[in-house]
Amino acid sequence: MKAIHSLLLSTIFLFASMTFAKQTKLTFAKDVAPIIYSKCSSCHRAGQVGPFSLMSFEEVRKHSAEILLVLNKHQMPPWKAGPSAYPFAGDRRLSDKHTAIITQWIKGGMEAGGKVPPAPKFADTWMMGKPDTVLIMPEVVEVAADGPDVYRQFVIPINLTEGKHIKSMDIMPTARSVVHHTILYMDPLAFARELRKRPDADMPNFKFPGKRIGGWAPGGSIKPFPEGYALAMPKRADLILETHFHPSGKLEYEQTSVGLYFTHDKHKFTEPEQIVFTNDYLQIPANTIDTFVIDKTIDSSLTLFGISAHAHFICKSVKVTVIMPDKSEKILLSIPDWDFNWQEQYRFEKPVVLPAGIRMLAEFVYDNTTNNPRNPRTPPQDVEYGLQSTDEMGNIMLEVLPKR
């Protein structure tokens, strides 16, 4: 069945390519630029995660070989989620038609086609334009070329003149290759300022008090809260930045910036919440493939607006399934090819209402063999749950809308 499906897709793609070949010769200005600018340029520009810029005809032509390779492997634009019972917003995948257009244009000589339309305008390197407030890590962190991973927590005073409501936030590392992940906490009573002075404040197991409000991992992007929902930020609150640094093979210097976007509406907001399920009993022996499942029965109804997963390098796939009270099953999230470098925060097109009494199964498959090209250890070694990147994790984060 899988072979028939693959043959059918290949036939459709070939037919699409032949159809375009019979038409007027494709040009960058008319046919290709609208696709590149809408699907690729937001990441492939200065200061963003893309390894090179795709903001002009010359840049697209220069990187045409790489573009052709990743398109036909369906690696770009990156979108790791498979089919879900509930559609996700912002799906970046290209249609077969768009893939055929770009492929035919590259193979046909890459004609510019006259006046190329202007590249999209971005306010600056921030995804939503200039934030209302920019907070910067209070020191530059030197990350050695090799050695163990490092955990640090930073307390950043916000110094608000009055209480605010946060509608969105953006996290911008300066050296993305060494940032394993960053988690944001809000300290509403500014207790952490004094705790920061303790000699053990930089130990990995030391935790400042605070409410988790957001985070960043490779592949993540800014996601505003749904309309009518915002995080209350009291006047005296501080921001806590918790970062996991991972050596990249060369000396790097990192100083993360956080952009906060406030809502200026005056009506009352409801605060969104986050539920985290984790499996901290992982044990994956060397040269084995194993599956671990988080199994939770949830007694109250839930309204989800987002979902994400977190694991490390030997994870191969993630699937989150909901078993309804009537025993029917719904897939919330499926990532058949887990990639540590693309940890998306998925938002649903519409909030998903789940009734009380559901059973949620989060299945993580780990491949700790030499057949896994992402395995950081050769030969493979026993792997357990842990904080180091060469350890493993299995977390599911649910973004929840409380009842108003």
Q: Which properties best describe this structure?
A:
single chain, 404 residues, alpha+beta, Jelly Rolls, 4-stranded antiparallel sheet, 6 helices, 20 strands, 16% helix, 33% strand, globular
What this model shows, in words?
With 404 residues, the chain is α+β, with helices and mostly antiparallel strands. The chain has 3 domains: 106 residues, no CATH class; 130 residues, Jelly Rolls; 128 residues, Sandwich (Jelly Rolls), CATH 2.60.120.230. Helices cover 16% and strands 33% of the residues. It is built from 6 helices and 20 strands. The strands form 6 sheets. A 4-stranded antiparallel beta sheet has the order 1-10-4-7, with no helix packed on it. The chain has a 4-stranded antiparallel beta sheet with strand order 3-8-5-6, with no helix packed on it. A hairpin with a 5-residue loop joins strand 15 and strand 16. Helix 1 crosses helix 5, helix 2 crosses helix 5 and helix 4 runs antiparallel to helix 5. The radius of gyration is 23 Å and the shape is globular. The termini are far apart.
Task: Walk me through the topology.
Blueprint: H1 2-22, H2 28-39, H3 57-62, H4 64-72, H5 96-107, E1 133-136, E2 141-143, E3 150-157, E4 164-172, E5 179-187, H6 192-195, E6 211-216, E7 231-233, E8 238-245, E9 252-254, E10 257-262, E11 273-278, E12 283-284, E13 288-298, E14 302-311, E15 315-323, E16 329-335, E17 346-354, E18 358-368, E19 383-384, E20 394-400
Antiparallel strand pairs: 1-10, 2-9, 3-8, 4-7, 4-10, 5-6, 5-8, 11-20, 12-19, 13-18, 14-17, 14-20, 15-16, 15-18
